[in-house]
Amino acid sequence: MTKIICTTLLVEKSPQALPLGAACVASAIKHYQGTEKECEVKLISFSREDEEIQTLQSDEQKADFIATRLIKEKPQIVCMSVFVWNRTIFELCAERLHKQGVIIIAGGPEITAHPDIFENSFDYTVSGEGEIKVPRIIESILYNKPYTPQDFPQSLDLKNIPSPYLDGTIDPTEFGGALWELARGCPFKCSYCYESKGEKTVRLFSEERIDKELDFFARKKVPQVFVLDPTYNANKQRALALLKKIARITPDTFYYFEARAEFIDYEMAKAFTKIPCALQIGLQSSDENVLRKVNRPFNKKQFVKNIGILNQAGVTFGLDLIYGLPGETFASFREGINFAVGLYPNNLEIFCLSVLPGTDLFDRAQELNLTFEQTPPYNIIKTDKFSPEDKKKASTLAQACSYFYNDGRAVPWFMTICHSLKTKPAAFFEQFYDYAGKNKITLDCCEHKIIEENQIKFITSLYKQRQLDRYIKAAADIIRFNGAISRKTATGISEKIRLTYPPEYIDSQYSLDLDFFVKNVRPKPCEIKI
């Protein structure tokens, strides 16, 4: 038997970073008629968060560790799934494996983007989908059976692709959840995305396969599922029908969807409320001219209206922003933060633009005046309107927002505090970043109780600076009350908190206006159990 290992190095070990690509290839090899009886296939994944790997300082040491682990399995062939974050390590790892006579087949986004530059690193490179190409290459290696480009269809028929969940290649319980492919392709061609140069089509996995995987998630009691459709709600009727199935078959599983705001309506919002779920919506910028440069349609008025529908229905959602986009200035980026937070997202994720090889943005970088790193992660360095100094300032805003707003679970009260201070969100985050530096607050701490106390201390300092001391106790009560509820929801653990004001008023519309609250609600100190 020929021993084949499919492997990858993940950013982290979590449902969001499950080795699905490598698993799909492993599953395809197992089911390929030309090799299925001759090959023993094993999936081995590594993570940057693995205890052994975290202790290693250099990429060379990490490559040595991975190579040693793989060599112990005595493989003849290793298939590597190569991404921005593991490219260098896998190139070094391949050197070690070659010395042991191991044949390396490499695929993944980095290979697809520019396969030619990896000719000296790997024996074979595979661009695009690997489920047909990799097994055919292995057949060629084993039986000296040449292949031609005609052996590889440009677009796979997804009906013929085996499921790595259903055949036991990967167990989602090891990762605390699953990534779920319902389709491949995207109807949009945003310039910064790998889909920007592909066909503007969406291919669907069969309803039969989806039903079987859903039943599998139910049997396994999978706690959370990340749906990989880049625009889940693009096909309204299909999206609604699947939400009904999810509600019936896996009512206790939490789902994460990527959605487009322009396809939200009352019926869709109501359907999302029937299951435990959260949506992540790509805003990227609030400047229509900026988004036009990256081929992303945007109607601000419609966006605001449809996000309002989500808020009215009570759907949990987050928004994404990117800094360093062509045409974006630091001022317009700050306005994007103000716009986004004003829509009350549950979280706001802020990313630096990566000019990824293989994207339309990469091809047009010179035309768009983009200067970016030539090695992974290909982050923007500067544009004609966004200086290196602007990038540093944007990074600090992203850190402050992540800590104070996202990790601090601030959505129920954040805009109330901003209104009472007459401060916009971007300015608030800038002030907090400065405060954190002066007070030696570590912004990578995620323990909510610690963050909560830092939130209260910072807001107290702002009120005192502006002689608004009358708001301090009410603001602290609102933060502690909502914080305790969020912790109870997350952990199931009850706790007691002390309040200055009656909880029934803190948990009411009165608390949305601090000035009205302190003028009309009498203090009544108490201790309550959440």
Word description of this protein:
This protein has a six-stranded parallel sheet with strand order 6-9-10-11-12-13. The protein has a five-stranded parallel sheet with strand order 2-1-3-4-5, with helices on both faces. The longest helix is centred in the C-terminal third of the chain and has 20 residues, at 388-407. The relative contact order is 0.06. The radius of gyration is 25 Å and the shape is globular. It contains 20 helices and 17 strands. Helix content is 41%, strand content 16%. α14 crosses α16 (425-438) and α17 runs antiparallel to α18. With 530 residues, the protein is α/β, with parallel strands linked by helices. The protein starts with a strand and ends with a strand. The protein has helices at residues 20-31, 51-54, 59-71, 87-98, 109-113, 133-143, 207-220, 236-249, 266-272, 288-293, 300-313, 330-341, 360-363, 388-407, 414-421, 425-438, 448-465, 472-491, 503-506, 514-520; strands at residues 2-10, 39-47, 77-81, 103-107, 124-125, 178-180, 183-185, 202-204, 224-227, 254-259, 277-284, 317-323, 347-352, 370-372, 380-383, 496-499, 526-529. β9, α8 and β10 (254-259) form a beta-alpha-beta unit.
